[in-house]
Amino acid sequence: MTQLQVRQVHSGIGHKQNQRNSLRTLGLRRIGDSVVRPDTPQVRGLIATVSHLVAVEEVESSDD
Question: Which conformational region is residue 15 in: left (phi greater than 0), alpha (psi within -120 to 50 degrees), or beta?
Fold first, then answer.
């Protein structure tokens, strides 16, 4: 299954509350934080909300 590595590159300060909430839901708290999330429609929607604040890469999961 493909996974998405999401890295916060800009601050959420000064942006709408729903965008700050989306960052928190993704697990991002500060600039430079990085998380790996499954590639699901729900996660894609969160990323679309904050696309101007994050950088996204697709990574292959290593299921052993």
Answer: beta
Domain boundaries, the chain: 2-60
Could you tell me the pTM of the whole model?
Answer: 0.89
CB 56 within 8 A of CB 6: yes
Distance between CA atoms of residues 63 and 50, nearest Å: 29
11-35 pLDDT, tens digit each: 999 999 999 999 999 999 999 999 9
How far is the C-alpha of 12 from the C-alpha of 38, rounded, in Å?
23
Distance CA 60, CA 9 (A): 22
CA distance 62 to 39: 14
CATH code of domain 2-60: 3.30.1390.20
